[in-house]
Amino acid sequence: MKYINILGYLGGCFLTINMIPQIYKTYREKRADNISLLFLLLNFIGLLLNMIYSYLDKIYAIAIPISFSFFFCCIMIVLKLKYKNNTILPN
To answer: Which residues of the chain fall short of a pLDDT of 50?
Structure first.
């Protein structure tokens, strides 16, 4: 493995795990009103296109982490749609 690929894998890992705290918070609070659906959809499209490109061009240091990011983005979209009407009512 080339040392430069390690940079790709490390960067991909950080970009992949950045969605985990938001998924956890959204699931725990059962609320997703503060997350933009447009952001999630644009992220979904960008990740999908980059994932396809990376696999076709055999850039696995990017393709593999992006695949995980894509999966986490799909989870966030599902949570956003599932909890879209949940709001905290004032006391």
So the answer is: 91
